[in-house]
Predict the 3D structure of the following.
Amino acid sequence: MFSPIFVRAASVAALCMAAAFDADAVASAAPLTLPQAQQLAVQRSQLIGAQDHALTAAREQAVAAGQLPDPVFKAGVDNLPVSGSERLRIGDDFMTMRRIGVSQELVRADKRHSRAQRFEREADIARASRHLAQASVQRDTAQAWLALYYQRQMAALAERMVAQARDEIQAAEAAYRGGRVARSEVLAAQASLLALEDSASEAERRVQTAQIGLARWTGVADAPELGEPPAIGKLPLDLVHLDTQLGHHPQVALLARQTELAQADARQAEADLHPDWTVELSYQQRGNGYSNMVSFGVSVPLQWDRPQRQDRVLAARRAQVEQAQAEQDEALRMHLAETRGMLAEWQNGLARLTRYEQAIQPLAAERSAAALAAWRGGKGALAEVLAAWRGELETQQQYLQLRLETSRLWAELNYLQAETAGEP
């Protein structure tokens, strides 16, 4: 028999598990919003995780680079005879000594600081790479989410048109059996229906492709319901100060960190112009009857060919700084031109969407309604109704396609900078 305490604990555990399952069921039934999809994509991105590891590695190396080198332990035998009666005998010859000692390279503080700063700049590069990866994930996830949302809208629109056409064809077939319409009109209507059904099949194929694209980022493969799309009429960009804002573009920021790394390499090369000293202390033990000894000394590298070695290394590092700065400036100009072009396309898309909403779509709907009224009043042909519906379908699909393209431009512009919540 189980004890009462065990029974109560099991009951509590069962209730907790049931509550968890209910929460999972509610969460799985809730629509997937764009921010939620982006959060899932960021959490499962291996590239962002890799940059986190690179950042940790650079920080650890920066600490290590700021320390003095490890001291060197030395031991050996000096002046051991190799011939004569005292051959290979320690302690008989007055010059033979057992030696034990330690040496320490004294790296200058400014040089150790410059080495540590170099790894700090590598950490900055890893952080900038993380921002770039995160911005790319957010942008691509947004575009995949928007593609699925609007492809579903197009597919649903096509299905509604097909359902309406089928209803009218059934009415036309009944009218044909009653002798009110010709057989040719029914056949023409059926051909138009096949064209609508083909459009619906193509729309469904695009939906499946879009579902695969979104699952690649979120890991949700069961085609979730989507929330409401974002408002695409505003952007966090100031056209007057666009060049300043694009200085924080992830790719430009990464190049800026690479420029800083090149500058750190140049400072390290400047510090290397001053050689490091090494001090050494050793204790020598001789045979019985002879005094023991202590030795100490200092060693310094001789930069005997500095113009051809150290100076040229420094010149190379300074040239790399100029190279990195030039690449950064060129990237900024390129992104500035691309962004202005995308802004112009986005503004044009918004204007066209307004035109579709206020004029083009209402006109297509009126044409369909007029054709349907004429058909039902016996003054028009069913083929004209289906042609008007097909034209309305194409108009609405063009509107949704334009909205998708404008939304993608909005996503491209809106995520020029990564959201850095949870940054290490």
